[in-house]
Design goal:
This protein has about 200 residues and is an alpha+beta fold. It has 9 helices and 5 strands, in the order ααααααβββββααα.
Length: about 200
């Protein structure tokens, strides 16, 4: 149980973001090293979970392509079948859900360290930053998958693999299951109901 909770921390930590700056290929490892180490430093602070969570989110936001992650979580077929308004609402609710899930688990951090294994070629011209999280009793592999956004030379994270399991594939399976029972508007209602009051009003 403790291991599962620890894995969730780093999985969620790796998925809270909106892109805002250009990350070149040769910058991936040093930039990610700097950001992850800053996150680990913030986690050691004695401040409230809300304050620490906000600082972590600001640190990680620029390196993730959350819009693409939201699309992939639904699958291209489902994404293309819904309206632009539904796409925007889903993206907003999806990111709010991830952020709140992270904030709820901050207390599970226990001085883990991260080892950086380098950037490797990945599927279809993409890149993967490979890392290991070293805990007191166990080691976990966390790989960050990058794509060349719009072939602009700006590399952003679109997926994270934890112990070989893709977060995007996990969410896609969850939403595919929901879509067998509900229409998309009902799924949006369900996501809204799970948001904290502040997120519902934004």
């Amino acid at each position: 149980m403790k291991t599962n909770k620890l894995l969730k921390i780093f999985l969620i930590l790796a998925t809270i973001s909106i892109p805002s700056f250009a990350l070149r290929q040769n910058e991936i490892e040093p930039v990610m090293h700097s950001k992850i180490e800053k996150v680990l430093t913030v986690l050691k602070k004695k401040e409230s979970n809300t304050i620490r969570g906000q600082e972590i989110i600001r640190t990680l936001d620029p390196v993730f392509d959350y819009a693409l992650m939201a699309k992939l979580a639904l699958s291209s077929k489902t994404w293309d079948s819904i309206t632009s308004a539904q796409q925007k609402e889903f993206t907003r609710l999806f990111i709010a859900r991830l952020k709140q899930s992270y904030l709820d688990k901050l207390d599970l951090y226990n001085n883990q360290k991260v080892i950086y294994k380098g950037v490797k070629p990945y599927q279809k011209g993409r890149l993967q930053l490979q890392t290991e999280v070293i805990g007191k009793d166990e080691t976990y592999k966390i790989n960050y998958n990058f794509h060349n956004s719009k072939n602009s030379g700006n590399w952003l994270i679109y997926d994270v693999e934890l112990a070989g399991v893709s977060i995007i594939q996990t969410y896609r399976q969850q939403f595919a299951g929901l879509l067998k029972e509900k229409n998309f508007d009902e799924i949006l209602i369900q996501l809204r109901e799970k948001q904290p009051s502040k997120a519902k009003q934004s």
